[in-house]
Amino acid sequence: MHEVILPKLGQTMEEGTIVEWLKKEGDPVSEGDVLFEVESDKAVLEVEARADGILRKILVGEGVEIPVLTPVGIIAGPDEDISGAVEGEEEEEAPEEPSAPEAEEEEAAPEAAAEVPAREGRLFASPRARKTAREHDVELRLLEGSGPSGRIIEQDVLDYLERQPAATPLARRVAREKGIALEEISPAGRRIRAEEVAARKARPERVPATAVPSEVPMPPMEGDIEPLSGMRSIIAERMAASAHTTAPITLQSVVDATEFVALRNKLKEALADDLGFSVGYHDLLVAIVARCLKEFPYMNVRLEEEGIRHLEQINVGLAVDTDRGLLVPVIDDADQKSIKEIARESRELIERALEGRSLPDELTGGTFTITNLGMFGIDSFTPIINMPECAILGVGRIRPEPAVVDGEIAIRQRMWLSLTVDHRLVDGAPGARFLQAVARYIESPYLLLS
Kind of pairing, strands 408-422 and 325-327? Predict the structure, then answer.
């Protein structure tokens, strides 16, 4: 018998919420199989089985928040006595057909509800079909099986997916919960993302009448109180701690970003075939900040009980707005990486953060953070320090403005920078020198080659 526990998936994780069990009671389990998804204070992560056997008992259901190291299930042999591990519960026998257990009662995916009526009663599907359906968040009750006696096989799932628009798993789940048809959404990129689904207004007639409120969350009405929990609670706690603990001072500067924009456009064209995507402004900013942190090591510090610790690594975090709240994936050793390496890594980290699949190590260890609100038309703002870091750089939008160049008026690309530093660690003048250096590289980005 093996006891499944909620693992500690990061240094800061103290509790977690089981989002979904991917194995049901009675399912055969092999070491390495994904048992369930858990939501930590940073991301949604998969937990794998560490033993072979049958999932005999689920001790903690979905949506329950529990401390780490809490037992959540039991894996054992089909005839093994587990009564001693389950207080107040009678031993249950494993089903005779583990490959075709009773299907869980879930609502039909809205985008396909009009095409195929949801099946009722027992559902028969091959193990490979179930696995593929779980991986792509497909409701098996919507499919017509082409196997013997109407059994659903893997090819049925694959054929269904081919008929659907490309979307992230989280986007599919949000669409199903909100009652939105994915085919009605035109994605900005290669795949429909969750935020694009969330921005659409759900059509009430697509929400099944039998939907359980906990499965299809309704938007809060006027006068309702929305609990401060989950990721929102973590963000509130940390931002309040930063505002009340640090001694923040924000320095602002407007810089000429004409050459910065030109370089980015050249890199987009030069590296497009190699990378398969466009280099972003944030990639160049990571390289610039990393260079400046190396030149001004007093900015790469943190305050500890013993005093000011000077950090060896330069790890730059990028603030990312996700469906779950603000996440900061970190590019480790950014000062030792080329722009192309930074671009590849930042793209992977940002995509995983948006899909809620960030690993704990990807969201910790930062020594400096960049936050960009320019895409929302914001010029300048006062960013809050991501503790225990010393400073954070806020980036505003880039826009053409008239400027005096060599005594003549010309149209130049202008960008606002807002640097918030902890005055306990860095005074205003040293902070200003750091911001001057960042501005110098933005105005003459080719200095990065020196």
Answer: unpaired
127 phi, psi to nearest 5 deg: -55, -40
Identify whether 388 is preceded by a cis peptide bond (ω within 30 of 0).
yes
Tokens of 407: 């005594």
- In this structure, the strands spanning 391-405 and 368-372 are parallel
CA distance 247 to 424: 6
Are the C-beta atoms of residues 231 and 363 closer than 8 Å to each other?
no
Question: Strand 248-256's sheet: what is its strand order?
Answer: 248-256, 408-422, 391-405, 368-372, 316-318, 330-331
Active site residues: 423
- Would you say the pTM of this structure is higher than 0.85? no
| Rounded distance between C-alpha atoms, residue 441 and residue 436, angstroms | 9
Between CA 413 and CA 260 the distance in angstroms is: 9
Structure tokens at 1: 């018998």
Instruction: Return per-residue pLDDT of the chain as tens, 450 residues.
Output: 888 998 887 666 778 888 889 999 999 999 889 999 887 766 778 888 988 999 999 998 887 778 888 899 999 998 888 876 655 343 333 344 444 444 333 333 333 333 444 444 556 777 677 777 776 767 777 778 887 667 788 888 888 877 777 776 667 767 766 667 776 777 766 667 766 776 665 444 333 333 333 344 455 666 666 666 666 777 787 888 888 889 999 999 999 999 999 999 999 999 989 999 999 999 999 999 999 999 999 999 999 888 999 999 999 999 999 887 889 999 999 999 999 999 999 999 999 888 878 887 888 899 999 999 999 999 999 999 999 999 999 999 999 999 988 899 999 999 999 999 999 999 999 999 999 999 999 999 999 888
